[in-house]
Amino acid sequence: MLALLLALGSSLAYGCADFLGGFGARGAHVLRTVLIAAPASLAVELALWPLLGATFSPGALGWGAASGVVSAAAFALLYRTLAIGPMNVLSPITALVSAGLPVAVGLLQGERLALAGVAGLALALVAVVLVSAGPGTARPSRGALLLASGAGTAIALQLVFLHQAPADSGVAPLIVGRTASSVITLTAAGLLHRRLGPQRPAFAVSAAAGALDSVANLLFLLAARSGNLTVVAVIVALYPASTVLLARGVLAERVHPGQLLGLGTAAVAVGLLAAT
Q1: Phi (first) and psi of residue 126, to 5 degrees
Q2: pLDDT over 80 at 206, yes or no
Q3: Cα(194)–Cα(217) distance, integer angstroms
Q4: Which residues pair with 170 in a beta bridge?
Q5: Which H/E stretch holds residue 166?
Q6: pLDDT digits (tens, 9 = 90+) for 229-248
Q7: CA–CA separation, 69 vs 231, rounded Å?
Q8: What DSSP string describes 114-183?
Q9: Helix (H, G, I), strand (E, B), or coil: what is residue 218?
Q10: Mean pLDDT throughout 166-174?
Q11: Are 58 and 176 spatial neighbours (Cβ–Cβ below 8 Å)?
């Protein structure tokens, strides 16, 4: 139950971070948004160090650095994807792709579920798809779909790499990973500074996105350490629900009956997983 609650908290934080990141990236180059979000994320993780501890073992350094490399790609791809829109279609696609690889890794590592758990996983994946359903939904471009798939793959790898870090390493993998992604982002911005354009992203919104992303990563790491990666990854993949609701409330993007059905399906899925 603890792992389930932590995964739900991670899902909510990821969804809010994605919305704010995509919103902040509108009208400005995505790298400018990441330049704000990544250091803000690192600041949160450094603040957590005295509270949760950190052991910088070779495993924590290696897996943390690997997660940071793909995290930099995930930041850029995801924020660019959500800036292009429509959020209520591309966010669920990204989530569905991001759930597949961690589930496969968990099953290959020997994780097993009762029948209710298997049904819950299946319903959760269906819920992710339904959240983007409904007549009249704007069709994304082929380029946006490719970006969404790439972002989902990068997120999946980040989660898998964090899960592989030693369980007694505290927040060390997060600190190492965010340091690596910040260095990559700064380097890319320096090389491409002439292409970034004069537009500035919303500073507070972009910083809040980075901070929430750190909270989401921490909650995922704690959930994966106390439960099955297979279950945790699928619960976390439900984050488009909060993204879609925020897009509805702030941007007036329409929520269709199919999406409402998806939210209800997600609730049932979580109930089944809690009963496993």
Answers
A1: -65, -40
A2: yes
A3: 32
A4: 54
A5: none
A6: 888 888 887 777 776 777 66
A7: 25
A8: -HHHHHHHHHHHHHHHHTT--TTPPPPPHHHHHHHHHHHHHHHHHHHHHHHS-TTSBTHHHHHHHHHHHH
A9: helix
A10: 93
A11: no
